[in-house]
Amino acid sequence: MSILDKHKILETNATLLLVCSFLVVTIGGLVQIAPLFWLENTIEEVEGMRPYTPLELAGRDIYIREGCYNCHSQMIRPLRAETERYGHYSVAGESVWDHPFQWGSKRTGPDLARVGGRYSDKWHEVHLIDPRAVVPQSNMPGFPWLAENVLDGKLTAQKIEVFRGFGVPYTQEDVDNAQKAVEGKTEMQALIAYLQSLGHALK
User: Fold this and answer.
1) Sign of the torsion angle spanned by Cα atoms 74, 199, 65, 143
2) What is the DSSP letter of 68?
3) Packing angle, helices 54-65 and 187-196, rounded to 10
4) 99, 112, 155, 194: which one has the fewest Cβ atoms less than 10 Å from its Cβ?
5) Cα–Cα distances in Å, from 130 out to 3, 127, 133, 151?
6) Is residue 123 classed as helix, strand or coil in its secondary structure?
């Protein structure tokens, strides 16, 4: 029997095709998944990483609430054009304490993975209130209400407790001082604090 005949039998016998397909997928899955059970950690630690401060954590919540991730990614791919523009490519260890991570999937605006320290707090404030005041060609909407909304920090300690449950190394002191660190600050200050915290570990 020729190879073509064997191939024809396989294609015309639905049950045999299903069994063979299942075997191939199972073997392929085991080859990829099984080694992970013998690895202590699949993510390399990044030196210099620290948990978000309570104010940065509040700013991260505002970043998510306002949908910033819809236009800004936080994932620099290992391509020359991207690393020359944005800096070192992103690594998984930088997002180890992000729940959920903010890699994003669209880049209408620039990537923000390394934006921390690139601009002053005042620049960010002007940019968030009226983006075209600093970037004339920008199509980003303004967020002037962030300067008016004041945080009370009542839920910040609970958020930190949740992140502790995910393995983020917050201390009890962080939990106890969380509300005080956020209370009275504006949403603008919180969002700027979050943006300024991004990307310092791998500049």
Assistant:
1) negative
2) G
3) 100
4) 99
5) 69, 5, 6, 22
6) helix
In angstroms, the Cα distances linking 100 to 22, 61, 199 are 33, 11, 17
**Measured between alpha carbons, how far is 50 from 174 in angstroms, rounded to an integer?**
13
pTM (2 decimals)? 0.80
Residues 41-54 pLDDT 10s: 666 778 888 999 99
Q: Are 203 and 87 in contact (CB under 8 A)?
A: yes
Q: What is the DSSP letter of 100?
A: S
Angle (CA) 155-191-153 rounded to 5° is 20
pLDDT grade, residue 20 (50/70/90)?
confident
6 or 21, greater pLDDT: 21
**Distance, CA of 113 to CA of 73 (rounded, Å):** 7
Neighbours of 59 (CB within 10 A): 27
Is residue 76 within 8 Å of residue 86, measured between CB atoms? yes
Q: How many residues does the chain have?
A: 203
